[in-house]
Design brief:
two-stranded antiparallel ribbon, elongated, 2 strands, mainly alpha
């Protein structure tokens, strides 16, 4: 056949395929996992498509783990009731009858690509959020804070942590809704990782007891201690 009569193959546009076309792509044994991974990302809210993906024999371990960690409880139950669970679960060493043992969350995350980690950070459960908030990548770590499932209890815990990046602490400190809570504002002021410019804004909101602790603390910058000392003196004068 002449080259000019050869049919040109158009690039696959996963985002705009019909549900029937997507299903045919998933059921095709020749479909590479890179395409299946893209479908899992784009259609993460479609339980019918996710079920088809879970049944797919050439779905990679990392893509299946991604679906398991970001999917609804129904999807997790569906995965648990299929043989594909053997991909997400590892064989227990020395366990009688080949008992399955859940892989460590860290092991699953280590196998993920950066784009999978970002998606997991944005939609994953609490255990995934607690792990990904410590990622060296600023994009992945701060994406956790945009997860709609995150709780104020988690935010307070992160605000107290001295092991997180300054980017994470800064994003918490500039969120008006979170910092409206006194315990979060207090956690930020007492955290040496919090940028001074952010800490100083919370000092006037501290109680006299908190200010007394702050002015003596050696863990926070001198500028914050000095501000705490001055604020405490003003509060005491106001009472006099």
């Amino acid at each position: 056949m002449s080259a000019r009569f050869r049919r040109k193959q158009l690039p696959l546009d996963i985002d705009h395929c019909s549900p029937i076309a997507i299903r045919n792509i998933i059921l095709d044994a020749r479909t590479p996992d890179t395409v299946l991974e893209r479908i899992a990302h784009v259609y993460c809210d479609s339980e019918d498509i996710l079920r088809d993906l879970v049944r797919c024999p050439n779905l990679s371990e990392t893509t299946l783990a991604f679906i398991a960690l970001t999917g609804s409880e129904e999807i997790k139950i569906f995965i648990a009731n299929t043989r594909v669970l053997e991909v997400v679960m590892g064989e227990g060493e020395g366990a009688p009858g080949g008992t399955k043992k859940k892989l460590n969350m860290q092991q699953l995350v280590l196998k993920m690509t950066p784009s999978q980690k970002i998606k997991l950070a944005l939609s994953g459960a609490k255990d995934a959020r607690g792990l990904l908030i410590r990622e060296a990548s600023k994009i992945i770590a701060t994406a956790v804070l945009s997860n709609p499932r995150i709780t104020t209890g988690e935010i307070e815990f992160f605000a107290k942590s001295q092991n997180l990046s300054e980017d994470v602490i800064r994003k918490i400190g500039t969120n008006v809704e979170w910092t409206r809570k006194p315990s979060i504002a207090s956690a930020l002021v007492n955290n040496p990782k919090t940028p001074v410019g952010i800490s100083l804004g919370f000092v006037p909101r501290m109680s006299e007891r908190e200010l007394g602790i702050l002015e003596k603390s050696r863990n926070i910058p001198e500028a914050v201690r000095s501000a705490a000392r001055q604020t405490l003196a003003k509060k005491k004068l106001g009472k006099g």
